[in-house]
Amino acid sequence: MLIDSHCHLNYKGLVEEQQAVLARARAAGVTGFLNISTREREWADIIALAEQESDVWASVGIHPHEADTHADLGEAALLEAAAHPRVVAIGETGLDYYYDHSDRQTQQALFRTHIAVSRETGLPLIVHTRDAEDDTAAILSDEMGKGAFPALIHCFTASADFGRKVIDMGLTISLSGIITFKNAKDLQAVATEVPEDRLLVETDAPFLAPIPHRGRVCEPAFVADTARFVAGLRGVSEEDLRATTSRNFFNLFTKAAA
Ligand SMILES: [Zn+2]
Ligand SMILES: [Zn+2]
To answer: What share of the chain is helix, strand, coil (3-state, %, to 5)?
Structure first.
């Protein structure tokens, strides 16, 4: 078993040959795909693919880049979409102060909307954070105080300090192909500290192809390379890493296990 816990199968680069992409991943041993949405108008297509393919699940959410264009999106729209049996997660959501494509206050407000929906549905929150560690940790902590919700930090690239904070809050950490990059020494150190039961792997395809595929369109098959690399870092067998991260996936995304 091996799960790509975060991919964008409906994005350019993958959507044109979605069936071939899925076939290559399955041939590489990938047994599950969490297909992530970033805008409301993607939800129908993302859900349709999950209805069609038994190993593909859907998430519904608004990426922080898109917050300005979804400033009026309320909880009701997310709740309604989340009720679909193939929707197993809320997100991706969060804060991105690196690109600042949307107003920061709007990003924060929409992040809290997603959190409320995660708490209400029990579906895990998929958090994107870039150059926004302090505000991300503060909002997560404040909202956890109002009532717990399951969550993960996807494509983790933050500091060891932030990693410890979110692990203390009960979050899971998902590692992408970035971990394989030669300049990712700090991140590699963090990756060895993540508790065994809090670790996931992902591609974030079509972005961030891991070594040895850098420069190519990333696809879910490459999660196998990231898993192999992380296994090496942590001194466990590749088979163990695949089993552990798959078990963690189904423990977190309980609706996918059902
Ligand atoms: Zn992201
Ligand atoms: Zn993503």
So the answer is: 50, 15, 35
